[in-house]
Write the structure tokens for this entry.
Amino acid sequence: MKYLNLLTLLLFSFSCAVDIPDDGKNDPPQFNSGDTLDIISWNVEQCPKNGNTTLGYLEDAILQMSPDIVAFQEMTSEVPIRSLADRLVNYDYAVGINGSSWRLAYLYNNNLITPSRAVYEILSSDSRKFPRPPLVLETSWKGENIIIINNHLKAMGDGILDETDNWDEETRRRDALLAIHDYVETNFSGERIVILGDMNDALDDDDANNVFNVFSTRPESYYLADYAIATGPTSGWSYRSGSWRSHLDHIIITDELFDAFDTTQVIPYESYLDNGWQEYDQNISDHRPISISLIFEGAE
């Protein structure tokens, strides 16, 4: 049955990997139907990139899209995420304590999301693998339990995984993902897990240089929910710097969520703004948000 579910997921996700136009004002997706658990991962590039103006843009984005949970990367401190939560009705926040000026954080709708414990960092003792320790949110939505692991892995590199160099960027990312896999298998066996964030690497590298092999080679247990986006048109990718594009922001789910998987999409929020990417890049980030929607039969 798991292999049948996986085939269904693959066929469906290909239908979600659409070409996204760069220009032309559109409406952002709205996640307030109440039928799905909607989670966004968003690297907000040293937030607030443009001071209070950035917070105003993010406030508008959250109000327009109404996600249940946003997992942020690159909060410069607790101040911007606290300020953002203060601007929004019915949203609370949690932030990691490590990562210097590159902190991980969560924003969540407190009418629908009930954390079962305070957020906590894992694997924080190994800065080689994790310059920013993964931040875990254990929570429930309409009585359905779910665990989210927010990540921001080491950046840069040359695309080549050098096994002889422990400080090679690709090696560090590969070892970090191995550690996350082992942590999940040891501590969260049988749980519904979403692993997401800015992972700073491509999903479709060749086997010798693919840092995600620990997940991609176990399709019965893990699903790379944005793989079709990663192999789709470049205009639909999550990261852009000048003319350079890549897809660095990813979402991985465990087999306990295969039946709940609905959609994954990169959100071209710049297309909602009057001045497109220039306005977005100046005031928000060089990364687009990426979302996953989950449907649970029998949810309260």
Remarks:
- Confidence is low (pLDDT under 50) at residues 1-8, 11-15, 17-23.
- The first strand starts at residue 37 and ends at 47.
- The domain at 2-19+34-294 is CATH 3.60.10.10 (Deoxyribonuclease I; Chain A).
- The chain has one domain: 2-19+34-294.
